[in-house]
Amino acid sequence: MRPFLRIATILLITAAALPATAFAPDEVEGRMAALNGAARQAYAVGKAETMSRTDPILVVADDLIFIREGRREEVPYLPPLYTVLKTVSHVALGTVSLLQPWTDDPAGAENWREPLIELRDRTRELRPLLAETGLEGKALARNEAEFDRWLAFIDRALERGSVTAAELEATARESAPTLLANGADAARVQLDALHEKVEAWRATLAPGEWERLRVLVLGPRMPRDGNLQFEYFAYAMGRDAVDRRLIYAESIFDPDQALSLLGTIVTDRRLSAAAFGDEMRMDRDFMADGAQAHLLRMFGRLGAE
Questions:
Q1: 295: which strand partners?
Q2: Are residues 84 and 153 in the same domain?
Q3: What are phi and psi of 241, to 5 degrees?
Q4: Is the domain of 153 the same as that of 166?
Q5: Residue 68: beta bridge partners?
Q6: Cα–chain-centroid distance for residue 168?
Q7: Domain range for residue 58?
Q8: pTM
Q9: pLDDT per residue over 203-229, tens digit each?
């Protein structure tokens, strides 16, 4: 064997016999971060392509956003009367929420006086215009009385510089029937307007597209239960669409963020179906099963043998 080949062979045998080269912890951490970044980038590319093939989509926010075949159309649908009913009702909600922390506290007026004056002044400005807002008949009468009730209450509170919990609750209870009636009227006009727009768009869909439709309803946490728009689509699409093709995007108000959420949902469900044979597995914490088992051990809930 030639000398240089013999030397090379010795070096290779020696290298194979040595333990793996040790890396500093920060280098290992850096390589882990690089791998994680590459995996996330791969996921993002796949998600973007999956989302581009997801069609049609409807995002329900302040407007309706129809997405089909790469085209995006934004359509207003809330009727003016809905806004009127909502605004009038907010006088009671704003007053009660503002004053509740400082009821039965004579020193609390310095905290609520200025915002209460602002609310009173804006209410006074609109009071003589209620008849021009689209309200009429019983609806107009009850909302004029609603404004008068709260204007009188606010004037008394400002004059005394204090509010008791009992009088605030009593006035709120007097207001409750009007609030509920306004809510019923607002629901009716909103549902009628929503149905009109959705049905007009649905008529343009090809056979089978409605059955593939994915709907994102954007809304805050508190009205999630019984949300008007969500319930409309549960009726229109069928209850089996709930949480599968009909998604409530809680506390997301930007349509593009909602679409990103939908991309994650669709991508993760396809991944779940491929890996676990259950497309809904990643709709809950991936570590949920292992965590539950360990928590039962941790807190002694497994029972005695």
A1: none
A2: yes
A3: -80, -20
A4: yes
A5: 71
A6: 31
A7: 49-76+213-285
A8: 0.84
A9: 999 999 999 999 999 999 888 889 999
